[in-house]
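Input/output pair, single chain:
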Amino acid sequence: MSRGSVYPAEARTLIDPATGARIRQVTDQASIHHHPFFFVPAYDDAMARLVFISHRSGRPEIFAEERASGKLLQLSEREGIAEYSIYPSHDGRYVYFTAGTGAFRVHTETQLEEQLVDLSDLGEARLREAGMVADAMGTTALSFDDRYWALRFSRSGCANLAVIDADSGACDIILQRDTIAHLMFCPDDNNLLYYAGPLKDRVWIIKRDGGDNRRLYQRQPGEWITHEVWIPGTRELAFVDWPKGIRCINVDSGVERRVTSFNAWHAICNSQGSIMIADTNFPDIGLQLFNPLDGIGRPHTLCQPQASNAGAHWGGPFPYEDGPIKVNAPQHTHPHPSFSPDSRRVVFTSDRSGIAQIYEVEIPENLLERLQNGTS
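Output:
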């Protein structure tokens, strides 16, 4: 299995028995598959490709479904890919990723690979930590104009936030501190990033040049604050107050408001900021669509992903009050839903068959209209 190899389409259509929604199973091969992390787009803006990770070669490699034909294209052939580091460019030209101590991008048409940064030049450095959560996932962030790529690495016991100019190749380290994870550029401001600090003090923002590094939300004792995402068009950062729902804060005014009150787990907006999708756990009530702007966020069931949702620690109170603990939470067992650019589909991962595969569910037209028109 080599870079540039093309495989036959594996897709098949299912009907969700609970809601009647049409689901397309994208992959069907006996190895782990998953799309990017929930706040990373799985598609380019034109929806020419759906990018994902496949373990079919015996290790994680980057693949894409060519949506016009349904065929699967292998984009990478590199050992040690950090599988949740992948980030497809919005223009569809590249997929950015890290592997070992290197930061790379691969061209989707030619499959030519380019190394942008080699952290071995900095001595003893690593791009992700041990474990399965937060900085152990090694997620990266690409600005919405595809110009800047942000990643974190650690060296000498210190976390570093680096921003790479994708045009010039210049790399600037803009922050050093104890913990940095889950980077996200603001969709309305390419000069502003969110990053997660320590588990008990997660919600931080910083300017792209390293200025104005500040805490946006002060966690209260007992709160489980997690899974932060931007709401496009509002300059608001939403965060899960597990399992009580979602709140958000405006980064300019500091005004806080409630988004929804059900047990939303991993939640993300569409590109217009008009609809939000969330998976659920304890209990799993399926993928839920809701309006993030009306202050109510009444959930509407889209489908039942039937994923195993590994991670027993989610069933109790905040488990990190006395420091980090070991958890068993393989990320490919979580649905991590996210929207297609046209807001008509939601991609998710499920191990419902016993092996994690990628699925794409259509949003019923009548429900989509009600949500977008604010009449849900």
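The chain has one domain: 20-372. The first helix runs from residue 365 to 372.
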